[in-house]
Amino acid sequence: MVCFHSDPTLSALVYTPNDMLQDTCANFASCYAFSELNGEEEKEDEDENTENEVEDLNNKRVVLAGLCKLFSYGIFEMRLATVLFSRIISAFGNFGDLIKQTMSKCREININYYTKTIALTLFSEYEKLREVGNGPVDKSSEEYTALKELARRLALTYGIELTKEPIRKAMINLHREAILRSFSRDDEQENEQDNAETEIALPNIGFLAVISECSSRLISQDKKTVLGILKKQMEDIKLNIKDAGRDPELQPLVSYYRVMLEGSQLSSAKTTKLRPAPQKAKRKLDVDGRFQKNM
């Protein structure tokens, strides 16, 4: 299937899996591969158990490698790769090489889809923390700290050449996706907001604190662009930064706003500094040794 997928003349031989099958396969492979080795079985013979663990790990790597190939060759939708991307740190010891190679291939296939998958990965993990806490995320928890570390790690997958145009666009799009998700509300919340004059409810605004971990990958000039995107979202819900500063629940928004504002001001300062200073009229000596203006 993988060999024939890119050849139009052999399209009749290709089976395209539907969404349900893709979801089922991705969930099964990830659950099987990332489950604890040998579960909680009692260990009696150390040598035998070590051999079983090695065999178990090899079997899991085979299954996960098959899933990685389906993403790498574009057979499965990239959005489903969140089950891999979210494990880049926690499962790095046993499966890091497979996950890194898959991420690299996905980035080569389409950097825009790759960026959306990165944003979806982080937001999905953030939503899990909200569900566990039944509301606001506990910022002192180990899980929240791990999520912020995951954000930093995923941002590093774009490489070090941050001034290249494709990378700059990708980083701006990553923050755009994060901003849109941070300002998102479900239909029920929007109806309640429309029917009652209450304070603006943004249940996902805390996600901006997570994506702030990726702000160092933005050059100063692009922080100004991201700030414009943020201001546009704030204008759409008639929210200004002064009002947000008085609301404790909107502090992640205020902090993110300041990071982008400081970055954009730094860019403006550099532009002013690099602007050439006006030159004074040059003077030269005439034949009698006296100075005269150079016309």
Automatic annotation (TrEMBL):
Source taxon at top rank: Eukaryota
One GO term of the biological process aspect: sister chromatid cohesion
UniProt-recorded name of the protein: Uncharacterized protein
Region (Disordered): 268-295
GO molecular function: chromatin binding
A GO cellular component annotation in the UniProt record: cohesin complex
Organism: Paramuricea clavata (Red gorgonian)
Similarity-based family: Belongs to the SCC3 family.
Composition-biased stretches (Basic and acidic residues): 284-295
